[in-house]
Write a structure and sequence with these properties.
One of its GO terms (biological process) is positive regulation of flagellated sperm motility. The protein has about 475 residues and is mainly α. The chain is built from 20 helices and no strands.
């Protein structure tokens, strides 16, 4: 562990990977220390922490991480994974030790979470290192507000969501669990809501996409639009439907309860519940159809538990009439909820279809307007060519123009004032006169007159000129 130079060449197989350095000895020392700490002996762990084990382990971890940047080696990766495991065991459920870990430890953890997913299949041990880093994050950061706030400042939530979006299925459960625990910090939800992935994907869209993927693997029945197919058991997997009811002791959880921990749907529901099911950005109509199911996940799960309870009672007991009626009412609640959700999903799809039709009609109207404008331009050009090539057509156009002008004039006669004609006699052009006039020659009398002075700013007013004459006289 010390920084003293080491010139040994190793000792048999215990020195493998440590020729000319202490890596081999450090590797086996950490293995021994890992076995000691794994005993969960409070006195031993307290003694280690009192001797500064956390700070020393962080120093070694930083040294090994810097060495890995130069050349990645399986032994260095193993050393880092063991240190992260040791830190997880030492800091778990101890606030003071988490505070000792907080700032320096978070700075070391962030690069591990940013690891390139392609390295996970390299075979050197990057997958174990990443799992150890996530476990260390859960044990050493969560639960300590100082460490949590610093992790948020370093954009750690964004890094976790980036890792979640990288489609590493074996990490889904762990990452989602960490995010759920982080949501106890009120600052976390704003970070999750502001995250954007590839193609401007939002966190809500990512979670709903993972839900659909999970249900597809579980064999949950949905129709072609993603709506509920089985009203009685809307979220039951194909394996769950094949299982028969097995009477079990009261202290043993039923299959409906065990199923919660075996997939990621419960964690996705918890995250979306923390974010709020209303006003989630970046969702399509298909996402809203799935969101309606997620929103009632707890209701459907409670219905499954009651269904198992009713099936167990029918095997060995016969409820009294009042209890049987109550069980019947309770068992109908999930089915009614499923019908309500299915109706809401149909309404969402109809609304989306109606919106698509409106957008399509708007697009067709724009296309029709463009074609109409082109036809008008073409017709105008043809009329222009007709007037310029046919004198009779020109006279006809002139008569129509005069008739249109006459029709647009006011019918009320002016009582006082002169009336000026707007017609130009002997007009021989086929287009309207413009505002610009080109002068080809200027008469001499105009040049010698008032127009001879071009710079009016240098010309003095007559009053001033007359005043000067009086003073001189």
């Amino acid at each position: 562990i010390s920084q003293d130079p080491f010139f040994g060449q190793g000792n048999s197989f215990h020195g493998r990977g440590g020729r000319g350095n202490k890596l081999a000895q450090m590797r086996y020392s950490l293995r021994v220390l890992r076995s000691v700490v794994s005993l969960y002996d409070d006195a031993v762990n307290l003694n280690l922490c009192d001797q500064g084990a956390i700070s020393q382990l962080l120093d070694i971890l930083k040294y090994a991480a810097n060495k890995s940047k130069e050349k990645e080696d399986a032994i260095l990766l193993e050393i880092q994974a063991d240190i992260l495991f040791l830190l997880s065991l030492l800091c778990e459920n101890d606030l003071h030790r988490k505070e000792l870990f907080s700032y320096e430890g978070v700075d070391i953890l962030i690069p591990f979470i940013q690891m390139d997913p392609k390295k996970l299949s390299s075979g050197l041990g990057h997958n174990c290192l990443l799992l150890s880093a996530l476990d260390c994050l859960w044990s050493c950061v969560i639960g300590c507000y100082i460490a949590e706030d610093y992790f948020l400042e370093k954009q750690g939530i964004f890094r976790l969501l980036d890792l979640l979006a990288s489609k590493q299925k074996n990490l889904y459960n762990l990452i989602l669990g960490i995010l759920v625990e982080f949501c106890d910090n009120p600052k976390t939800t704003s970070h999750i809501s502001s995250w954007r992935g590839e193609q401007d994907q939002t966190a809500a869209n990512l979670l709903i996409e993972l839900w659909r993927q999970e249900e597809l693997e579980l064999g949950v029945k949905r129709d072609r639009y993603g709506r509920i197919f089985d009203m009685k058991r809307p979220i039951a997997s194909s394996f769950q439907k094949q299982q028969e009811v097995i009477p079990m002791p009261a202290n043993c959880p039923s299959f409906a309860i065990v199923e919660i921990s075996e997939n990621i749907r419960a964690k996705i529901y918890s995250l979306l519940f923390k974010l709020g099911f209303e006003n989630l950005p970046g969702l399509s109509a298909k996402d809203f159809v799935t969101l309606a199911i997620i929103r009632h996940y707890i209701d459907f799960k409670v219905g499954e538990v009651w269904s198992e309870l009713c099936a167990e009672l029918k095997e060995e007991f016969r409820p009294v009439e009042s209890d049987e009626e109550a069980l019947k009412v309770i068992s109908e609640i999930p089915e009614n909820t499923g019908r309500i959700v299915a109706a809401l999903q149909t309404e969402v799809l109809e609304s989306q279809r109606h919106q698509e039709i409106q957008e399509e009609e708007k697009l067709y109207a724009e296309i029709q307007a463009v074609h109409k404008q082109r036809e008008m331009v073409k017709k105008s050009w043809e009329n222009f060519l007709t007037r310029t090539s046919n004198y009779e057509a020109l006279k006809k156009a002139k008569r129509l123009q005069e008739k249109s002008i006459e029709a647009s004039r006011s019918k009320l006669k002016t009582q006082n004032g002169a009336v000026h004609s707007t017609d130009i006699k002997g007009l021989g052009t086929t287009i309207g006169s413009g505002r610009l006039v080109t002068v080809t020659s200027t008469p001499p009398q105009l040049i010698e007159g008032t127009l001879a002075v071009t710079d009016l700013a240098l010309r003095k007013p007559p009053a001033c000129k007359g005043a000067l004459k009086k003073i001189r006289s």
